[in-house]
Amino acid sequence: MKGVDRFLIPRPRGELRYRCILCEGAFPLDRFLYTCPLCGGLLRIEDLRFEELKEVSPEGWREVFDRRRFLGVEVLKGIFLFHELILPTVPLEDVIYLGEGHTPMVRANEELSQWVGVPFLLKYDGLNPSLSFKDRGMASAVSFINYMIRHKGLEEVLGICASTGDTSAAAALYLSYLPKERVRSVVLLPEGRVTPAQLSQPLGSGATVIEVPGVFDDCMKIVEELAERYEVCLLNSKNPLRIQGQKSYSYEVAQQLGWDTRSLVVVVPIGNAGNVTAIMEGFLDLYRLGLIEELPTVLGVQSEHANPLVLWRRTGQYRPVKVRPSVAQAAMIGNPVSFPKVAQLVEQHYGDRFVVVEVSESEIMEGMLMANRHGHVVCTQGGEAVAGLRKALAEGLLRPEGRFVVKSTAHHLKFAGFQQMYFEDAFPPEYGIRPKDELKNRPVKLPASAQEIARFLGLKPKG
Protein backbone atom coordinates (compact mmCIF):
# COMPACT_ATOMS: atom_id res chain seq x y z
CA MET A 1 0.00 0.00 0.00
CA LYS A 2 1.40 3.34 -1.06
CA GLY A 3 2.09 5.90 1.62
CA VAL A 4 2.84 3.61 4.57
CA ASP A 5 6.58 3.29 3.98
CA ARG A 6 7.27 6.36 6.11
CA PHE A 7 5.69 4.63 9.12
CA LEU A 8 7.79 1.46 8.96
CA ILE A 9 10.55 2.87 11.20
CA PRO A 10 8.66 4.49 14.07
CA ARG A 11 9.68 7.87 15.43
CA PRO A 12 8.80 9.23 18.88
CA ARG A 13 5.26 10.59 18.85
CA GLY A 14 2.17 10.83 21.02
CA GLU A 15 1.62 12.45 24.39
CA LEU A 16 1.47 9.96 27.24
CA ARG A 17 -0.10 10.57 30.65
CA TYR A 18 -0.94 8.56 33.72
CA ARG A 19 -4.73 8.54 34.07
CA CYS A 20 -6.55 7.46 37.24
CA ILE A 21 -9.32 4.96 36.58
CA LEU A 22 -11.36 6.36 39.50
CA CYS A 23 -11.12 10.16 39.63
CA GLU A 24 -9.80 10.64 36.06
CA GLY A 25 -6.86 12.65 37.38
CA ALA A 26 -4.04 13.03 34.83
CA PHE A 27 -0.31 13.23 35.55
CA PRO A 28 2.71 13.59 33.26
CA LEU A 29 4.74 10.51 32.40
CA ASP A 30 7.97 11.98 33.75
CA ARG A 31 8.28 9.87 36.93
CA PHE A 32 7.33 6.50 38.36
CA LEU A 33 3.72 6.43 39.59
CA TYR A 34 1.67 3.41 40.64
CA THR A 35 -1.43 4.89 42.25
CA CYS A 36 -3.21 8.19 41.92
CA PRO A 37 -1.74 10.93 44.17
CA LEU A 38 -5.24 12.40 44.54
CA CYS A 39 -7.43 9.40 45.40
CA GLY A 40 -5.20 6.31 45.52
CA GLY A 41 -6.83 4.68 42.49
CA LEU A 42 -5.00 2.55 39.95
CA LEU A 43 -3.42 4.23 36.94
CA ARG A 44 -3.36 3.43 33.26
CA ILE A 45 -1.23 4.91 30.48
CA GLU A 46 -3.19 7.13 28.10
CA ASP A 47 -2.02 8.52 24.78
CA LEU A 48 -3.68 11.92 24.44
CA ARG A 49 -2.98 11.80 20.71
CA PHE A 50 -4.26 8.26 20.12
CA GLU A 51 -6.93 9.49 17.70
CA GLU A 52 -4.21 10.78 15.39
CA LEU A 53 -3.33 7.14 14.65
CA LYS A 54 -6.63 6.93 12.77
CA GLU A 55 -5.11 9.14 10.09
CA VAL A 56 -3.68 5.87 8.82
CA SER A 57 -6.32 3.38 7.69
CA PRO A 58 -6.75 0.00 9.42
CA GLU A 59 -5.40 -1.64 6.26
CA GLY A 60 -2.39 0.65 6.43
CA TRP A 61 -1.57 -0.25 10.04
CA ARG A 62 -1.96 -3.95 9.29
CA GLU A 63 0.55 -3.59 6.47
CA VAL A 64 2.96 -1.60 8.65
CA PHE A 65 2.90 -4.15 11.46
CA ASP A 66 3.17 -7.07 9.05
CA ARG A 67 6.06 -5.59 7.06
CA ARG A 68 8.03 -4.60 10.16
CA ARG A 69 8.55 -8.29 10.92
CA PHE A 70 10.86 -8.54 7.92
CA LEU A 71 12.85 -5.31 8.30
CA GLY A 72 15.78 -6.77 10.23
CA VAL A 73 15.69 -3.90 12.76
CA GLU A 74 16.70 -5.47 16.07
CA VAL A 75 14.55 -3.45 18.48
CA LEU A 76 11.49 -4.00 16.27
CA LYS A 77 11.83 -7.77 16.54
CA GLY A 78 10.17 -7.80 19.98
CA ILE A 79 7.08 -6.19 21.45
CA PHE A 80 8.10 -2.77 20.13
CA LEU A 81 7.11 -3.90 16.67
CA PHE A 82 3.87 -2.31 17.96
CA HIS A 83 5.73 0.83 19.10
CA GLU A 84 2.80 3.20 18.50
CA LEU A 85 0.59 1.17 20.86
CA ILE A 86 3.07 0.55 23.68
CA LEU A 87 5.38 3.49 24.49
CA PRO A 88 5.36 5.74 21.41
CA THR A 89 7.25 8.56 23.20
CA VAL A 90 10.31 6.35 23.87
CA PRO A 91 12.93 6.52 21.08
CA LEU A 92 13.99 3.23 19.55
CA GLU A 93 17.56 3.69 20.80
CA ASP A 94 16.29 3.38 24.39
CA VAL A 95 14.36 0.14 23.80
CA ILE A 96 15.67 -2.95 25.59
CA TYR A 97 15.21 -6.07 23.46
CA LEU A 98 16.27 -9.44 24.87
CA GLY A 99 14.35 -11.72 22.52
CA GLU A 100 10.86 -11.35 23.97
CA GLY A 101 7.55 -11.55 22.14
CA HIS A 102 6.20 -13.18 18.99
CA THR A 103 5.84 -16.55 20.66
CA PRO A 104 4.38 -19.35 18.53
CA MET A 105 0.80 -20.56 18.52
CA VAL A 106 0.66 -24.35 18.18
CA ARG A 107 -2.45 -26.28 17.22
CA ALA A 108 -3.56 -29.00 19.62
CA ASN A 109 -3.68 -32.44 18.02
CA GLU A 110 -6.92 -34.33 17.52
CA GLU A 111 -6.66 -36.42 20.70
CA LEU A 112 -6.09 -33.42 22.97
CA SER A 113 -8.79 -31.42 21.19
CA GLN A 114 -11.28 -34.24 21.78
CA TRP A 115 -10.31 -34.38 25.47
CA VAL A 116 -10.86 -30.62 25.87
CA GLY A 117 -13.97 -30.54 23.70
CA VAL A 118 -12.93 -28.28 20.79
CA PRO A 119 -9.99 -27.70 18.45
CA PHE A 120 -7.77 -24.99 19.93
CA LEU A 121 -4.38 -23.28 19.75
CA LEU A 122 -1.80 -22.98 22.54
CA LYS A 123 0.33 -19.83 22.59
CA TYR A 124 3.70 -20.60 24.17
CA ASP A 125 4.61 -17.55 26.23
CA GLY A 126 7.02 -19.78 28.13
CA LEU A 127 9.40 -19.30 25.19
CA ASN A 128 10.19 -15.73 26.22
CA PRO A 129 13.78 -15.09 27.48
CA SER A 130 13.13 -15.69 31.19
CA LEU A 131 10.65 -18.44 30.25
CA SER A 132 7.43 -16.56 31.04
CA PHE A 133 5.07 -13.92 29.68
CA LYS A 134 6.33 -11.43 32.28
CA ASP A 135 9.13 -10.45 29.88
CA ARG A 136 6.59 -8.56 27.79
CA GLY A 137 5.86 -6.13 30.62
CA MET A 138 9.48 -5.91 31.75
CA ALA A 139 10.60 -5.01 28.22
CA SER A 140 8.37 -1.91 28.32
CA ALA A 141 8.95 -0.96 31.98
CA VAL A 142 12.74 -1.36 31.83
CA SER A 143 12.92 0.39 28.45
CA PHE A 144 11.22 3.33 30.16
CA ILE A 145 13.76 3.18 32.99
CA ASN A 146 16.53 3.23 30.38
CA TYR A 147 14.87 6.25 28.74
CA MET A 148 14.69 8.05 32.10
CA ILE A 149 18.37 7.36 32.75
CA ARG A 150 19.51 8.49 29.31
CA HIS A 151 17.29 11.53 28.83
CA LYS A 152 16.00 12.66 32.22
CA GLY A 153 19.19 12.54 34.26
CA LEU A 154 18.06 9.70 36.51
CA GLU A 155 21.21 8.66 38.35
CA GLU A 156 20.13 5.73 40.54
CA VAL A 157 17.29 3.21 40.31
CA LEU A 158 16.33 0.41 42.65
CA GLY A 159 13.87 -1.85 40.87
CA ILE A 160 11.78 -3.98 43.23
CA CYS A 161 8.95 -6.49 42.92
CA ALA A 162 6.99 -9.08 44.84
CA SER A 163 6.72 -12.38 43.07
CA THR A 164 5.64 -16.00 43.04
CA GLY A 165 8.64 -16.62 40.78
CA ASP A 166 8.13 -15.47 37.21
CA THR A 167 7.97 -11.71 37.86
CA SER A 168 11.21 -11.85 39.85
CA ALA A 169 12.99 -13.76 37.07
CA ALA A 170 11.89 -11.27 34.41
CA ALA A 171 12.61 -8.17 36.49
CA ALA A 172 16.07 -9.39 37.49
CA LEU A 173 16.93 -10.38 33.91
CA TYR A 174 15.93 -7.09 32.28
CA LEU A 175 17.38 -4.88 35.02
CA SER A 176 20.68 -6.78 34.78
CA TYR A 177 21.04 -5.48 31.22
CA LEU A 178 21.27 -1.87 32.46
CA PRO A 179 24.46 -0.30 33.94
CA LYS A 180 25.26 -1.84 37.34
CA GLU A 181 26.51 1.46 38.76
CA ARG A 182 23.05 2.97 38.31
CA VAL A 183 20.59 0.12 38.64
CA ARG A 184 19.95 -2.40 41.43
CA SER A 185 17.44 -5.26 41.45
CA VAL A 186 15.59 -6.51 44.54
CA VAL A 187 12.87 -9.18 44.67
CA LEU A 188 10.66 -10.36 47.54
CA LEU A 189 9.53 -13.98 47.44
CA PRO A 190 7.22 -15.95 49.77
CA GLU A 191 9.52 -18.33 51.61
CA GLY A 192 9.20 -21.95 50.51
CA ARG A 193 6.54 -21.19 47.88
CA VAL A 194 8.76 -20.74 44.83
CA THR A 195 10.16 -23.66 42.84
CA PRO A 196 13.95 -24.17 42.91
CA ALA A 197 14.15 -23.39 39.20
CA GLN A 198 12.35 -20.08 39.68
CA LEU A 199 14.47 -19.15 42.69
CA SER A 200 17.65 -19.78 40.71
CA GLN A 201 16.72 -17.23 38.05
CA PRO A 202 16.89 -13.92 39.97
CA LEU A 203 19.89 -15.22 41.88
CA GLY A 204 21.64 -15.99 38.62
CA SER A 205 20.85 -12.50 37.30
CA GLY A 206 22.52 -10.97 40.36
CA ALA A 207 19.42 -9.67 42.13
CA THR A 208 19.11 -9.29 45.88
CA VAL A 209 16.55 -11.95 46.83
CA ILE A 210 14.61 -11.50 50.08
CA GLU A 211 12.43 -14.38 51.31
CA VAL A 212 9.45 -13.37 53.45
CA PRO A 213 7.20 -15.65 55.54
CA GLY A 214 3.67 -15.94 54.13
CA VAL A 215 2.24 -15.84 50.62
CA PHE A 216 2.45 -13.47 47.67
CA ASP A 217 -0.12 -11.08 49.12
CA ASP A 218 2.16 -10.52 52.13
CA CYS A 219 5.12 -9.70 49.86
CA MET A 220 2.96 -7.38 47.79
CA LYS A 221 1.91 -5.36 50.82
CA ILE A 222 5.55 -4.77 51.70
CA VAL A 223 6.66 -3.62 48.24
CA GLU A 224 3.60 -1.36 47.98
CA GLU A 225 4.60 0.30 51.24
CA LEU A 226 8.19 0.63 50.06
CA ALA A 227 7.04 2.19 46.77
CA GLU A 228 4.83 4.64 48.66
CA ARG A 229 7.42 5.76 51.20
CA TYR A 230 10.78 5.37 49.45
CA GLU A 231 12.45 6.10 46.10
CA VAL A 232 12.09 2.73 44.43
CA CYS A 233 10.68 1.59 41.09
CA LEU A 234 7.88 -0.95 41.60
CA LEU A 235 7.90 -3.55 38.84
CA ASN A 236 4.74 -5.50 39.62
CA SER A 237 1.74 -5.24 37.31
CA LYS A 238 0.44 -2.42 39.51
CA ASN A 239 2.93 -0.38 37.47
CA PRO A 240 0.96 0.63 34.35
CA LEU A 241 4.17 0.56 32.30
CA ARG A 242 4.12 -3.21 32.76
CA ILE A 243 0.60 -3.42 31.39
CA GLN A 244 1.66 -1.51 28.26
CA GLY A 245 4.13 -4.24 27.34
CA GLN A 246 1.81 -7.12 28.16
CA LYS A 247 -0.78 -5.74 25.75
CA SER A 248 1.52 -7.03 23.01
CA TYR A 249 0.09 -10.50 23.58
CA SER A 250 -3.24 -9.34 22.11
CA TYR A 251 -1.56 -7.65 19.16
CA GLU A 252 0.36 -10.83 18.36
CA VAL A 253 -2.68 -13.10 18.63
CA ALA A 254 -4.62 -10.84 16.27
CA GLN A 255 -1.70 -10.67 13.83
CA GLN A 256 -1.14 -14.43 13.93
CA LEU A 257 -4.84 -14.95 13.15
CA GLY A 258 -4.68 -12.63 10.14
CA TRP A 259 -6.33 -9.79 12.13
CA ASP A 260 -9.59 -11.77 12.26
CA THR A 261 -10.96 -12.01 15.82
CA ARG A 262 -14.54 -12.89 14.97
CA SER A 263 -15.87 -15.68 17.23
CA LEU A 264 -12.52 -15.75 19.06
CA VAL A 265 -12.18 -16.93 22.67
CA VAL A 266 -8.93 -16.14 24.50
CA VAL A 267 -8.28 -18.27 27.60
CA VAL A 268 -6.12 -16.72 30.34
CA PRO A 269 -5.16 -17.73 33.91
CA ILE A 270 -5.98 -14.74 36.13
CA GLY A 271 -3.35 -14.63 38.89
CA ASN A 272 -2.84 -11.01 39.92
CA ALA A 273 -5.21 -9.89 37.10
CA GLY A 274 -2.59 -7.72 35.40
CA ASN A 275 -2.33 -10.15 32.51
CA VAL A 276 -6.04 -10.34 31.78
CA THR A 277 -6.24 -6.54 32.13
CA ALA A 278 -3.49 -6.07 29.55
CA ILE A 279 -5.06 -8.55 27.15
CA MET A 280 -8.45 -6.85 27.29
CA GLU A 281 -6.86 -3.41 26.88
CA GLY A 282 -4.77 -4.66 23.97
CA PHE A 283 -7.73 -5.95 21.99
CA LEU A 284 -9.58 -2.73 22.81
CA ASP A 285 -6.74 -0.70 21.22
CA LEU A 286 -7.01 -2.74 18.02
CA TYR A 287 -10.80 -2.42 18.02
CA ARG A 288 -10.66 1.37 18.44
CA LEU A 289 -8.29 1.61 15.45
CA GLY A 290 -10.43 -0.68 13.33
CA LEU A 291 -7.72 -3.34 12.97
CA ILE A 292 -10.18 -5.97 14.28
CA GLU A 293 -13.93 -6.11 13.73
CA GLU A 294 -15.00 -7.32 17.16
CA LEU A 295 -13.66 -7.86 20.66
CA PRO A 296 -13.00 -11.50 21.57
CA THR A 297 -14.52 -13.33 24.49
CA VAL A 298 -12.04 -13.59 27.34
CA LEU A 299 -12.22 -16.67 29.58
CA GLY A 300 -10.43 -16.08 32.87
CA VAL A 301 -9.50 -19.16 34.89
CA GLN A 302 -8.87 -19.44 38.64
CA SER A 303 -8.04 -22.27 41.00
CA GLU A 304 -10.63 -23.20 43.61
CA HIS A 305 -7.87 -22.35 46.10
CA ALA A 306 -7.76 -18.67 45.04
CA ASN A 307 -10.99 -17.64 43.33
CA PRO A 308 -12.02 -14.03 44.18
CA LEU A 309 -13.06 -13.15 40.61
CA VAL A 310 -15.15 -16.30 40.31
CA LEU A 311 -17.00 -15.32 43.46
CA TRP A 312 -17.37 -11.75 42.19
CA ARG A 313 -19.01 -12.87 38.94
CA ARG A 314 -21.18 -15.32 40.86
CA THR A 315 -22.41 -12.92 43.55
CA GLY A 316 -21.84 -9.46 42.12
CA GLN A 317 -19.68 -8.53 45.11
CA TYR A 318 -15.90 -8.54 45.31
CA ARG A 319 -14.13 -9.74 48.43
CA PRO A 320 -10.53 -10.89 48.87
CA VAL A 321 -10.13 -14.56 49.81
CA LYS A 322 -7.62 -16.45 51.90
CA VAL A 323 -5.61 -18.62 49.53
CA ARG A 324 -4.69 -22.25 49.91
CA PRO A 325 -1.68 -23.97 48.32
CA SER A 326 -1.87 -24.26 44.54
CA VAL A 327 0.32 -25.94 41.95
CA ALA A 328 -0.43 -22.92 39.75
CA GLN A 329 1.67 -20.76 42.04
CA ALA A 330 0.92 -17.54 40.19
CA ALA A 331 -2.74 -18.24 41.02
CA MET A 332 -2.13 -18.09 44.76
CA ILE A 333 -3.35 -14.49 45.01
CA GLY A 334 -6.42 -13.79 47.10
CA ASN A 335 -6.65 -10.07 46.35
CA PRO A 336 -5.53 -9.37 42.75
CA VAL A 337 -4.06 -5.89 42.51
CA SER A 338 -5.54 -5.17 39.07
CA PHE A 339 -9.11 -6.22 39.90
CA PRO A 340 -10.47 -2.63 39.71
CA LYS A 341 -9.19 -2.38 36.14
CA VAL A 342 -10.81 -5.68 35.21
CA ALA A 343 -14.12 -4.58 36.72
CA GLN A 344 -14.06 -1.30 34.78
CA LEU A 345 -13.17 -3.00 31.49
CA VAL A 346 -16.00 -5.50 31.95
CA GLU A 347 -18.49 -2.78 32.83
CA GLN A 348 -17.56 -0.42 30.00
CA HIS A 349 -16.54 -2.71 27.15
CA TYR A 350 -16.65 -6.49 27.57
CA GLY A 351 -19.81 -7.30 29.53
CA ASP A 352 -20.83 -10.89 28.82
CA ARG A 353 -17.67 -11.32 26.74
CA PHE A 354 -15.79 -11.77 30.02
CA VAL A 355 -16.37 -15.22 31.52
CA VAL A 356 -14.71 -16.76 34.60
CA VAL A 357 -14.44 -20.41 35.61
CA GLU A 358 -12.76 -22.19 38.51
CA VAL A 359 -10.94 -25.52 38.41
CA SER A 360 -9.65 -27.92 41.04
CA GLU A 361 -5.98 -28.54 41.71
CA SER A 362 -6.33 -32.04 40.26
CA GLU A 363 -7.84 -30.58 37.09
CA ILE A 364 -4.91 -28.16 36.78
CA MET A 365 -2.39 -31.01 36.93
CA GLU A 366 -4.41 -33.10 34.50
CA GLY A 367 -4.61 -30.15 32.09
CA MET A 368 -0.84 -29.71 32.17
CA LEU A 369 -0.03 -33.41 31.88
CA MET A 370 -2.53 -34.06 29.11
CA ALA A 371 -1.28 -31.09 27.07
CA ASN A 372 2.36 -32.08 27.45
CA ARG A 373 1.58 -35.73 26.75
CA HIS A 374 0.24 -34.62 23.38
CA GLY A 375 3.17 -32.57 22.14
CA HIS A 376 3.19 -29.30 24.09
CA VAL A 377 5.32 -27.46 26.66
CA VAL A 378 2.77 -26.22 29.19
CA CYS A 379 3.30 -25.01 32.77
CA THR A 380 0.87 -25.45 35.65
CA GLN A 381 -0.73 -22.08 34.87
CA GLY A 382 -1.10 -23.23 31.27
CA GLY A 383 -2.61 -26.44 32.60
CA GLU A 384 -5.01 -24.28 34.57
CA ALA A 385 -6.05 -22.55 31.34
CA VAL A 386 -6.45 -25.83 29.42
CA ALA A 387 -8.53 -27.28 32.25
CA GLY A 388 -10.55 -24.05 32.39
CA LEU A 389 -11.48 -24.26 28.71
CA ARG A 390 -12.52 -27.88 29.16
CA LYS A 391 -14.60 -27.01 32.24
CA ALA A 392 -16.26 -23.96 30.63
CA LEU A 393 -17.34 -26.03 27.64
CA ALA A 394 -18.63 -28.88 29.81
CA GLU A 395 -20.64 -26.46 31.96
CA GLY A 396 -22.08 -24.61 28.96
CA LEU A 397 -20.33 -21.32 29.77
CA LEU A 398 -18.93 -21.28 26.23
CA ARG A 399 -20.32 -22.50 22.94
CA PRO A 400 -18.10 -24.97 21.05
CA GLU A 401 -18.31 -22.91 17.84
CA GLY A 402 -15.58 -20.43 17.08
CA ARG A 403 -11.83 -20.36 17.60
CA PHE A 404 -9.96 -20.78 20.87
CA VAL A 405 -6.49 -19.59 21.89
CA VAL A 406 -5.14 -20.79 25.25
CA LYS A 407 -2.28 -19.00 26.98
CA SER A 408 0.52 -21.03 28.55
CA THR A 409 2.23 -18.40 30.66
CA ALA A 410 5.55 -20.08 31.49
CA HIS A 411 7.84 -22.95 30.52
CA HIS A 412 7.00 -26.41 31.78
CA LEU A 413 10.49 -27.00 33.21
CA LYS A 414 9.97 -24.29 35.82
CA PHE A 415 7.34 -26.53 37.38
CA ALA A 416 8.81 -29.96 36.74
CA GLY A 417 8.82 -30.59 40.50
CA PHE A 418 5.03 -30.65 40.56
CA GLN A 419 5.01 -33.19 37.73
CA GLN A 420 7.38 -35.36 39.73
CA MET A 421 5.19 -35.05 42.83
CA TYR A 422 2.23 -36.17 40.73
CA PHE A 423 4.09 -39.20 39.38
CA GLU A 424 5.22 -40.15 42.89
CA ASP A 425 1.85 -39.36 44.55
CA ALA A 426 3.74 -37.05 46.91
CA PHE A 427 1.45 -34.02 47.20
CA PRO A 428 0.75 -32.83 50.76
CA PRO A 429 -2.93 -33.18 51.76
CA GLU A 430 -3.63 -29.44 51.53
CA TYR A 431 -3.35 -29.55 47.74
CA GLY A 432 -6.21 -32.03 47.51
CA ILE A 433 -4.66 -33.79 44.49
CA ARG A 434 -5.33 -37.47 43.82
CA PRO A 435 -3.12 -38.61 40.93
CA LYS A 436 -4.59 -40.86 38.26
CA ASP A 437 -2.57 -43.95 37.48
CA GLU A 438 -2.98 -43.51 33.73
CA LEU A 439 -1.23 -40.11 33.94
CA LYS A 440 1.73 -41.30 36.01
CA ASN A 441 5.04 -41.99 34.34
CA ARG A 442 8.22 -43.31 35.94
CA PRO A 443 11.62 -44.51 34.69
CA VAL A 444 12.04 -48.25 34.20
CA LYS A 445 15.34 -49.84 35.27
CA LEU A 446 16.57 -52.67 33.04
CA PRO A 447 19.89 -54.42 32.46
CA ALA A 448 22.23 -53.01 29.83
CA SER A 449 21.06 -55.63 27.34
CA ALA A 450 19.39 -55.13 23.96
CA GLN A 451 17.62 -58.49 24.35
CA GLU A 452 16.19 -57.59 27.76
CA ILE A 453 15.01 -54.20 26.52
CA ALA A 454 13.49 -55.76 23.38
CA ARG A 455 11.69 -58.33 25.53
CA PHE A 456 10.33 -55.56 27.80
CA LEU A 457 9.13 -53.55 24.78
CA GLY A 458 7.58 -56.59 23.10
CA LEU A 459 9.61 -56.15 19.94
CA LYS A 460 9.47 -58.80 17.21
CA PRO A 461 12.66 -59.96 15.43
CA LYS A 462 13.07 -58.85 11.79
CA GLY A 463 12.20 -61.35 9.10
Structural class by secondary-structure content: alpha/beta
For this structure, the CATH topology of the domain at 105-131 and 246-428 is: Rossmann fold
Query: What is the number of helical segments per DSSP (H or I, 4+ residues)?
Result: 16
Total strands: the figure is 13
SSE series? EEEHHEHEHEHEHEHEHHEHEHHEHHEHH
Describe the global form: globular
- The largest sheet has its strands arranged as 4-5-13-10-11-12
CATH class of the domain at 105-131 and 246-428: Alpha Beta
Which regions are unreliable across 5 or more consecutive residues at pLDDT < 50? none
Main β-sheet: number of strands, strand sense, barrel status? 6 strands, mixed
Summarize model confidence as the mean pLDDT: 95
N-to-C terminal Cα separation, in Å?
A: 63 Å
Q: Strand-residue fraction?
A: 5-15%
Helix content: 25-40%
Second CATH tier, the architecture of the domain at 105-131 and 246-428: 3-Layer(aba) Sandwich
Taking Cα atoms only, what radius of gyration do you get, to the nearest Å? 22 Å
Describe this structure as you would to a colleague.
The chain is of the alpha/beta class and 463 residues long. The protein has a domain of 210 residues: Rossmann fold (3-Layer(aba) Sandwich), CATH 3.40.50.1100. Helices cover 37% and strands 14% of the residues. It has 16 helices and 13 strands. The strands form 3 sheets. The protein has a 6-stranded mixed sheet, with helices on both faces. Strands 8-7-6-9 form a 4-stranded parallel sheet. Strands 2-1-3 form a 3-stranded antiparallel sheet. Strand 7, helix 6 and strand 8 form a beta-alpha-beta unit. Helix 4 packs parallel to helix 5, helix 8 crosses helix 10 and helix 10 runs parallel beside helix 12. The longest helix is centred in the first third of the chain and has 18 residues.
